[in-house]
């Protein structure tokens, strides 16, 4: 066998490969693997929510089934008691066994005319009232909704109990009662009992900030809540044992991140990934990157550590930064500033960020600037809030101080402009968009406005599908999960909505007003049934489902 030609052929093929090409191929494979893993996690979360919903429906159906069986058994018991009384009246015995009862009843069916010759007809009403009394004592007064139907009488009775009494106690023969199958429980129309509505209740109020709390963020793994305030501090709270909290629990923050010299207005963090990082910005126009410190690594009562947990500083905006949003999957961060620019940043890992920052290099890569396309003489459009489209991860939404909503493609930068107010009405009110929430199951975008309205937009048609008054004051914060929406306003209340019917399910007075501001931010834990709100009263409140 000639092996020399085979070896030379392999060598010639190997010469076509380079180290750079191999590394590039491996990077692409890693990215595709991470993307598939992320998609799997998102699908897992959606299926978990669906399973929980179906389990709730199943439990409600089983409760209906159990209640029906209980009512049938109670009705059988009352029926037996009435049959015994009837047998005593017709048979004249004080003790009558079941055989005698069945014999008398069968005989009564054959000779109904002759049996009903003993008691006066006026006793019929008394027995009917007596039966109603028994049903009330057993809690079955709703079995008969109206008067009992009279029995058809072919012969005029004389001095008898009346054949109506026999109609009351003569029911079809007993049949074997079997539990209703689970597959049929949803089709029951006899008792329309809706599943119990879930409601939110305040668990605890966290008191530590000295000024307005503007932003909240839940960490994915460690059970950490971060709160950013105008007192220039970011406080970290350990909420891993939140189930034991109550209104009398004293909970203090276990660490404070210091570095900002002006009020902090916004904060975000990565949701999926091993590293836990925080990104904060405010009136300085500077974005700071923080390493999230777990509670187990901090001795709250020990000596202060000299370590600085700020691992990066991004300087690019010239005005205050109003909003930050981290990409649900990729290492990307959006920043919306008062200078009229929305910037897209590429993040790096913690080690690289620390090395770059210590060496004086920029710890992030600015990818692209996005601005509102305007013509000559048009008003300047200032972005106020942003949000990633979860169903289309290559796009994001930007709200402005003007009645416009923009959908940008992060790769091409091409905008799709949605105008939700007529040209003639644009100058009558202030239509500024204060907050945006996107759905994780549909192409729906919800915006909260300065004019107290909630507006629902369809991304596919780029149109406003619903416009309603959400609060008695400006809508300042939104959070959306599945088919449910939570909104906070400067009236100090939280409102819970069903986006399928656009109905308000619950309202909670949450925060006191201060300087015409109320609720300022809302956040929900990604895995716990836990929600947090913060406001102008410097409080952070936790809520759970009851």
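-> sequence recovered:
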């Amino acid at each position: 066998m000639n092996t020399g030609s085979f070896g030379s052929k392999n060598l010639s093929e190997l010469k076509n490969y380079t180290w750079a090409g191999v590394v590039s191929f491996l990077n692409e494979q890693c990215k595709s693997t991470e993307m598939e893993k992320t998609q799997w996690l998102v699908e897992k979360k959606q299926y978990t929510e669906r399973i929980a919903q179906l389990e709730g429906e199943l439990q409600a159906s089983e409760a209906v089934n159990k209640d029906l069986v209980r009512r049938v058994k109670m009705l059988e018991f009352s029926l037996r008691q009435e049959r015994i009384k009837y047998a005593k009246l017709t048979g004249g015995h004080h003790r009558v066994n079941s055989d005698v009862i069945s014999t008398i009843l069968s005989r009564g069916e054959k000779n109904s005319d002759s049996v009903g010759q003993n008691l006066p007809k006026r006793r019929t009403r008394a027995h009917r009232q007596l039966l109603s009394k028994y049903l009330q004592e057993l809690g079955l007064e709703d079995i008969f909704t109206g008067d009992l139907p009279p029995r058809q009488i072919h012969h005029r009775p004389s001095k008898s109990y009346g054949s109506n009494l026999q109609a009351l106690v003569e029911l079809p023969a007993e049949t074997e009662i079997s539990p209703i199958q689970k597959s049929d429980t949803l089709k029951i129309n006899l008792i329309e009992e809706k599943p119990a509505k879930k409601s939110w209740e305040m668990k605890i109020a966290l008191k530590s900030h000295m000024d307005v709390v503007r932003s909240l963020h839940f960490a994915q793994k460690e059970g950490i809540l971060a709160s950013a305030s105008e007192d220039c501090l970011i406080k970290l709270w350990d909420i891993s044992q939140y189930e034991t909290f109550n209104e009398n629990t004293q909970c203090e923050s276990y660490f404070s991140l210091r570095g900002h010299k002006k009020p902090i207005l916004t904060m975000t963090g990565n949701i999926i990934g091993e590293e836990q990082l925080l990104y904060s910005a405010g009136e300085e126009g500077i974005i700071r990157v923080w390493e999230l410190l777990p509670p187990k690594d901090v001795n709250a009562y020990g000596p202060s550590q000299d370590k600085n947990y700020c691992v990066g500083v991004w300087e690019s905006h010239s005005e205050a930064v109003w909003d930050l949003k981290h990409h649900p999957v990729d290492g990307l961060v959006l920043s919306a500033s008062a200078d009229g620019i929305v910037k897209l940043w590429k993040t790096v890992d913690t080690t690289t960020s620390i090395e770059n920052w210590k060496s004086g290099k920029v710890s992030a890569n600015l990818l692209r600037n996005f601005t509102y396309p305007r013509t000559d003489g048009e008003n300047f459009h200032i972005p106020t809030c942003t949000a990633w489209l979860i169903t289309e991860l290559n796009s994001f939404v930007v709200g402005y101080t003007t009645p416009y909503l923009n959908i940008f493609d992060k790769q091409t930068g091409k905008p799709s402009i949605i105008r939700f107010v007529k040209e003639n009405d644009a100058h009558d009110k202030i239509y500024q968009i204060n907050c945006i929430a996107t759905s994780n199951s549909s192409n729906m975008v919800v915006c909260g406005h300065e004019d107290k309205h909630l507006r629902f937009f369809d991304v596919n048609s780029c149109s406003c599908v619903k416009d309603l008054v959400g609060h008695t004051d400006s809508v300042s914060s939104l959070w959306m999960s599945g088919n449910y929406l939570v909104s906070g306003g400067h009236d100090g209340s939280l409102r819970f909505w069903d986006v399928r019917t656009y109905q308000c399910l619950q309202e909670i007075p949450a925060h006191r007003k201060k300087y015409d501001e109320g609720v300022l931010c809302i956040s929900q834990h990604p895995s716990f049934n836990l929600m947090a709100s913060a406001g102008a009263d410097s409080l952070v409140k936790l809520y759970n489902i009851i």
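The mean pLDDT is 76.
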